[in-house]
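U., I forgot to send this yesterday:
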Amino acid sequence: MKSPKRRVVIVEDDSLFREMFLETIAAAPTWSVDGCHVRAESALVAVPLNPPDAVIVDIQLPGISGIELVRKLKPQCPATQFLMVTVFEDADKVFEALAAGASGYVLKRDVHARLLESLDDVMAGGAPMSSAIARKVVQHFQLPVPEPGDAFQLTQREKATLDLLVKGFFYKEIANELGIQIDTVAFHLGNIYRKLQVRTRSEAILKYMHREAK
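Result:
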């Protein structure tokens, strides 16, 4: 007896890519398309009614963005895996997508060759990424050699985030100032707290200011 095909929903407003996804999945022996949406708004209503195994999500959608869609759907569909597809090679968008609940991030130029492989990968517990995206993630975590007095080894973006925190900025204000999403601010602050070995905003500020005063 054959195992049932895994179900995938497509959320993509570009008709050419949408058709490519449909054709690729239609030829796959282990996957079937369970629905297509041009806008996040319709997917937000339909997907929770019968959660699929995976959802392919374009980041740049009209109206609600793909990242915001994943952020709203993941708590309602915890077993569903979300694979982001995009033209963006922006590190902040990668982190925003992952923080929102995405399991993989594939550039559209790589999708034709990697779509099925990426879907299988997320179902197996992996986190598929295009090589260009993976390199950006690696570069983000490759800390520079600390300068004298920089014992915390913060990245430039983490320093900028912490400087605004010290000035009394709230998460939303930091996000606006740096041009990033609130989830990305939280991601950077998580790294900052870990490097400073603190648990709260107040502890982070005090420890950072004490070090800078030396």
